[in-house]
Request: fold
Amino acid sequence: MPTDRNRRRIPRRMWLQAAAVVVLASVGLVALFGSPVARAAALGGIAMAGGYGVGLTALRRLLAVPHGITSTARAVLDEAIRMRSTLVLLMLLVACVPILPLLLDPAERLTYRVQFLVMWNLGGASLILSLLTIFLACGSICGDITSGRIHMSLTKPLDRQEYLVGKWLGIVLYNLLLVALVGIGSYTLIRMLAAGPAADQADRDAVERQVLVARRAVSPTRDDPEAYAAAVNSAIEQREKDDSEGFAADHAGARRRIRREFDREWLTVTSDMVSTYVFRDLRTKGNTSADVQLQMNPRALNVDIDFSDVSFAMWFNDRPWPVRDGEAVAQIIPSQARHVFDLPASIVSESDDLRLRIANRNLVPAGETRATSITFPPGDGLQVLVRTGGFESNFLRCLMIMWFKLAVVAAVSVAAGAMFEFPSAVLAALVIYAASLGSDFFRDALGIYNVASETAWGQVAERMSYAAQYAAEGRGYDVFRMLLGFLTDAVLWILPSFSSDAAITRLATGIAIPWSAVATRFVLFGAVYPAAFGFLGWFVFDRRDLVKSGS
Amino acid sequence: MRPRVRAVESLDLEIRRGEIHGLLGPNGSGKSTTIKMILGLVTPTRGRIAVLGRRPRDVATKRYIGYLPEESYLHGFLSARETLDFYGRLFRLPARIRGERIDRLLAMVGLDAVGDRPVREFSKGMQRRVGLAQSLINDPQLLILDEPTSGMDPVGAWQIRDLIRELGARGKTILLCTHQLSDVEDLCDRISIMFGGRIRSQGTCDELLAGESASLIRTPPLDPVVEGEVREVLARHGIQPVVMERPRRKLETLFLEVVEQARAEGLTTSGAKSGGAVPTFLRSDGGKGQPDDSSSPAVVNTALLDSLVRNPSDANGS
Reply:
């Protein structure tokens, strides 16, 4: 006979169903009657949830082939949709992607809001998916081992290698689904936000021509490369004469340093000179409607000044631009900010080149003895941008790179799960992920351990030389520090660099992600690194007694 | 540093094809470690193990092995049917064959009515039944059962004993590891008793149990007069002391009678039902089956289909 208490108890499944109905109904109401942005968020949420179910069914069908690898991968999918930690992160993902637009300040310029949305939506999703991958992979493998489920699997015709590959494949396919959903949700939201009200027409144009676009960046070259080469060679010879011993120790590094000095000098426009920069092979020939833009990010340079407005005049292919009354109009723009000038396509020469001359028009500021120089940082300090395609293709390439990176994270996590118990595995995977994410930062931060030489052998020789010198002086800590540099160099060399491609930044600033970069990442992150980490994990896993002796 | 335990030492164990071999020993005697070494889960520090003529880690060997571990290591989020499907896929069984075998095995272990419920909602005994079913999905030649009746109710335990007996009769090689000595005595052809990681005693039940210095005469209940006369006759032959007692019924027998009576009265349970017959796909090979190419999954499946066609009564869910 059931007691009153038992009779009143409602099963947990019913609670969950009721909660799901309430959430869906609320979201549906917002989608129907909410503000445009709230409606977009609600629709994005519904689309992601629906796509999740459809995609999961499709993946399960794809893995229906009865084989050890596919069956293990299929079980990972089943596990992924039920594991608590992954569910929490998934909910966070579903909540973050559509809700983020609601947090943007509508008073802000639309260009910045769209850029912010692209950066934070994809960056946040990438972080959440990486964490989800780590917890799923480590939880699945360590859970199998500690719960003893591995007894059941590995006593079937399933090789340990197949088991690990199956786990990796399942996670990678699950990530594919989630990246696709994030892509659909984000793209919808970006387009809806971009269609919203802009501050003015310039703001609207900037969104369309500087953010939701894919542009090829062309860096400047020298007007006279032969003269430059001769000057550099002359400087190198002079340096060799002045310091023959130091030069012989690392002549490749010395050459690089001299070239860098020349580059810095070349990218600086002092008050008494006109600098010339040639942008070659712009590929606009025959396309008079091609979008051509000059992007610059100038720095002010004076004795006590590093931030101020800078003033200059420009000539393109020996014609002043912009022109007023037949004269070049001086531009006055703030330094340390990115500025984009839309240029007419007709300004490009017949030979598809653009020759830019810049004359410094700065005056001598109060308290200084000379006019402020203008310098352009190497890289994106001075570039010509030519439209090569639309935002969609660039967005797709960004998502592909994101997915490839997750494949590395999955391989690292599978390897960690195969080698360690859960807490250690998660920690190891997190450390490697963080190091890969911030590899450029770590290279700078660990600069105290670095040496000046730029070649590997030069660094080894220099480091050993310093270590010997410190040892002779009895400076034990410095010897240790020098030798530790070998370890940090090796670690940073081995780890994948997730920050070097800057795919999300490129997407948000409308710079095309080249297909060659996608192909390189596919080979490196989709195959080479997973194979390397997978081999390491398998090497330990294959030799590991997966069960403790019982009775 | 934690001292390393030598779980098994100088083990010399042979399990013959087609026999039911009982592996006995107190806790910590090395039984489970021995099984894990046979299955390739633990690597021996030295020595050699051959399973069906191959190394234990050889994937090809595992096609012919069924294993029920001492505890039910199952994915709690999968249903019983999905669990069997998952393991069937690992054996690369085609979908149709897999489906048929799953239906028959669920019926055999009495879980066909609850096959779609997540395993985590099952009692320990029901999970053992799922574990047993998965160990048979590939129609194994060598079946390793570690404490198969652990957590089972007496009805389930009785059915498993019957199943083991039936599989043994069909020529399957079975390694039975249990603390239920009566089960071993009833079922096993040969027995090995382990202690301290070594085999202390090995042989058939008859060999090991023969030589008890007493005789047992089993008769219908005797009245006191006849009992007195029997005592007199035995005393005349100098046989003393004589113990005559009326044995009690076994508790297991009583339990089974109560359950059968309840079922006969139409009472139902939300758990496992009484198990069905042993499926015909668990082939009889008389202990002569060889792990060669003729036993590859495709051929096995053809044989299974043939057997289903030949046995329409089984195909109807007997």
